[in-house]
Amino acid sequence: ILLGLFSLTFKLYASDEKPITANVMGPLWLESEDEWQTFRNDLSWAKSAGVGAVTIDVWWGAVETDGDQKFDWRYYDKVFKEIRQYKLRIIPIMSFHQCGGNVNDTCNIPLPNWVWHHFDGFSSDDLKYKSEQGNYSSEYVSLWANHLVLSQYRQFMQAFEHRYQHLADYIDEINISMGPAGEIRFPSYNQHDTGTEFPTRGAWQVYGKLAQQDLTQFLTKRYASITELNKHWGTSYKDFATVSVPLPTSCSASACKATIDWFHQALVTHGKQMLVTADEAFANEFKSIPLGYKVAGIHWLMAKEGRWHRAAEIATGLLPASRTEEFGYRNVISLANLPLSNKRGTILHYTALEMSDNPTAPAYSRANALVTQFSELARTLGVNIKGENALSAGVQNSHGWRNIHKHIQQQRFTGITVLRLNSIANGEGRKHFEAFIELNNG
């Protein structure tokens, strides 16, 4: 009966004939014994339902909170032991972002406080994203501070491998956090700013001191002279060092285009640096385990006409202004093809599989079309892509699952990870997920 909900009578297999993987996101954090017992119950259900692996955020701010190189792994010793007790596999997320401040976050784990004061000659604000509103974000260290903080990420990952090398055979993938909520993006629609939440255009986050210095270098390479820049921008700067980051509300078309290309390029470079750093850090027992990264489905304002068309995607840094193809995600997707050692491979995760189009005000959303376009481009580029639902509520009804099935049956994704274990194990979505797994493994 449940299978009939989806009017599907065939096995769901990826293009290489491997079964579609069905995983779940584990809890953000566990405190009370009641929460731990619920976790055990949910793991028992997951195993019986045929779930393959559980993703677990390994919070930098929880493990290394007491100081540089002062690691406390006891919480994760317990979490991983519980998962393996039920013979489920593990997908750890190297969570270099804070827990708290995003949709459905139920915990408060900031980044290690010491990191903001760790680097001589740099203030805490220097290491943070600064928005067009003048606010600073503490969710993730600014990518323009990578020359300082990448060594800290590397040390954390090396310590993780050393601690859990005995679990190498049970880890399917290691996901690398590249921004807020673990996604490769700027914190453009997050809570440190006012009026930037869904479904607005968000706010540009590129106004910090280190960002300004990087823009100067970018413009020096882009334009032959300051005279050339002034000609295109309609400005009268005396030299490149005096060019300030323009505002999206007032910049000329040429200035906006150059600025967007600059911070998109910076985001893509950041993604490469994070993957290379992880590849180098996991050089021993984890050397053959695939890496993963997540791209958020920023679907609102896609159907908006005029100046703010696709402005939400642009503010996250995911789209360049100068695009070789209209869709614009080629650079972000192509990160998954970055050559890594041991041919370990990279898996791209994309959200919003459960969502439908809603191209009217105020959202002007084309979520379903976005998922289709994104996954088809990934397939064209030969990228291993897996999907996720964006919101827990999205997999608590048959409508959301119909969208998921549609994308899977057309071989756009090689697997899904459902958000989140407790809600799917104890909610209306449970029967739908069980039917999905049964259909896949039937």
What is the helical fraction, as a range of percent? 25-40%
How many helix segments? 13
**Uncertain runs:** 1-16
Shape, principal axes of CA atoms: globular
Q: Can you count the beta strands? A: 12
Radius of gyration: 22 Å
Quaternary form: single chain
Return the structural class. alpha/beta
Strand line-up across the major sheet: 1-2-3-6-7-8-11-12
Assess the beta-strand content as a share of residues.
5-15%
Distance between the termini: 14 Å
Mean pLDDT: 93
What kind of sheet is the major sheet?
Answer: 8 strands, parallel, barrel
Question: What is the succession of H and E elements?
Answer: EHEHHEEEHEHHHEHHEEEHEHEHH
Question: Can you tell me about this structure?
Answer:
The chain is 36% helix and 11% strand. The chain is globular. Helix 4 runs parallel beside helix 7 and helix 5 (209-222) packs across helix 7 (253-281). The longest helix is centred in the middle third of the chain and has 29 residues, at 253-281. It has 442 residues and is of the alpha/beta class.
Outline the secondary-structure elements:
Layout (H helix, E strand, L loop, with lengths): L20 E5 L7 H17 L3 E7 H4 L10 H12 L3 E7 L33 E2 L5 E2 L8 H19 L9 E3 L32 H14 L3 H8 L19 H29 L9 E5 L15 H6 L13 H5 L11 E5 L6 E2 L6 E2 H14 L3 E5 L9 H12 L5 E4 L2 H5 L3 H13 L1
Parallel strand pairs: 1-2, 1-12, 2-3, 3-6, 6-7, 7-8, 8-11, 11-12
Antiparallel strand pairs: 4-5, 9-10
